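Blackboard transcription, Thursday session:
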Amino acid sequence: MSAARSVPTSKAPDVIAVVDGGTAARELASLAALKGMKVHLLCDGDTGPVEESIRASLDAKVARWTISAAEAKSLLARIAFHDAVEAVDAGLVVDFRACTEKDGAAWCARLDSLFPSSAVIAVQLGGRSFAELAGGGDRFAAVRFFPPVWDVKTVEVLSNGVSDAGRGTVLAFAAKLGKRVVPVSDVPGAVALRPYLALLDACLEVAASGAVSLDEADAAVKEALRMKVGPVELARIIGPDVVKRWCESLGDGFGVHPLLDELERGGKDDERGGKA
Amino acid sequence: MKILVVNAGSSSIKYQLLDPDDSGPLAKGTLEKIGQPGSFLTHTVRGEKHRLERDVLDHSAGIEWVLQVLADPELGVIRDVREIDAVGHRMVHGGEKFYKPTLVTPEVMDVLVECIPLAPLHNPHNIKGIEACRRILPDTPQVVVFDTAFHATIPKHAYLYALPYDLYEKHRFRRYGFHGTSHYYVSREVAKHMGREDDPDFRVITCHLGNGGSITAVKGGKSIDTSMGYTPVEGLIMGTRCGDVDPYLFIQIMEIYDLDTRQVSNLMNKFSGLLGISGVSNDMRTLEELMDTDERARLAIEMFCYRVLKYVGAYTAALGGLDALVFTGGIGTNSPLVRRIVCSNLGYLGLKLDEEANERGVGNKTLRISAPDSKVEVWAYLTNEELVIAQQAAEVVASL
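(Written on the board underneath:)
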């Protein structure tokens, strides 16, 4: 990991665009709106289910005293739903799509041509590298939000190979969200994703060997490592389909364990991710 | 003398320009939505309210705009900002470091920053207001007045919590109390009305009842106990705060619902109190309207009044008797019902309410509402925290 570079201080944008209608994108859009930002949520297709998902998620947050009903109402009013990925006037575009596209670089090139040149484009890396997706773009930055995006208090931000302006805007944005920035270099899946997937794989393997049931393995790891949730439970929360995608994009050493397929069949709550 | 009183919040600045020898402000207003789209200023001068709009990036730009408006030929009340003799800043928490109004110096600023952890939701924004004024009015004295300062006289046996003493020594975990400026003002004014401002034995209980609420026992002009504690959550039932609750209950709730500290903080600060009990509103006016048809609205009012009553009883014992009971704050000066319920149980002190006067005590008026033969005088008293801040700032400046 490299040390954080000094970057010019930037102001957090008042208006952002979030690309994709998946769980992580919806969570980030809601959190940014809670912090007072105007958010364009750019989905590809019918926005009804996306809006419905956000409403349900906010209702659950109100029920668990995370936010008040008034806060939920006002933040929802700050989100504009778009049924296409289209140009909008925003200071920052956070893209959750490139990391799932076969040709992520082509997707980033499309974003580059679509949005006004004044907008910074931050790409969610997932299990992929920035060099592979958008390396060299002079207004691009790279982030790695870990799900559940609303709750996890850190965000990994690439500290080299990105533009200073882009990184400065992302740092100001992260501060406004109340997230602690972990500066990282361009290693796919670094930091949190790699150890998490290794731990999950170990749990799945020990269960597959018949030594212990999957839930008992999860409970033992959770307690012994003093985690808030076990790795298997977390996979269910995130969505096994998302976890599988991470494994596939990371490749060597991070193959998809057969039990992960079973988890996916057993616990799919959401087409585009888990319960988060 | 002209004193600008500034109360800076996270995205707002409230201000008043006052002559400390006169109770009414020359001009006052609130700047809202600082750092957000659609910032606006509501400015009241010569009885007229004006709404002005302009994007305001930060507190510095906000103070600059406020000063421009105050010196504006049409909307203003001064010709030049140099006419402002001092700026008095409200600061929520001064901890154990500040127990009186203090002139701001670079050294004081450093200590104010050290106090941020005591009130992380308020102090940083109060400091932003001070920094902005120091930048724009570098030659004008800045005085900081603390909500906690009036309670600095509370004795140790009353301000300590019965936790391991190390925790107090290491972290200064103790009762600090809030609303000090308001409790000070109404207790002082009532003592004056009763001709007892210099009486060291004068015993008054002040009930500051608004969306946030606290009760203070004052003897001889000094606070000897107050209901809010290390934070404003302790004590009375408030609009959305729970007040006193067995602390172990929060551990249970956190375990049952798997909550983090932020959620449980929201639970006790934003979802509880009148709102939590009634399920309808945190606004006493709404609950009073509903109380005949909504059982939980009535229950919320009963619980609210009962908690006030318990504190009045406890503080009467702490004071060794009672000479005056004062109601202030939005509910205190506008709810005859709350005052009547509380006072109806205090007959054992010889307290008698003047029912007709009590009913007239609405609309933020100041008046005595006890019967002439009552052994305890009862007042509905309009508080004026800005005036106190202006007066205390003027005293500091005069002593330079």
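Lecturer's comment: Chain A has eleven helices and eight strands.
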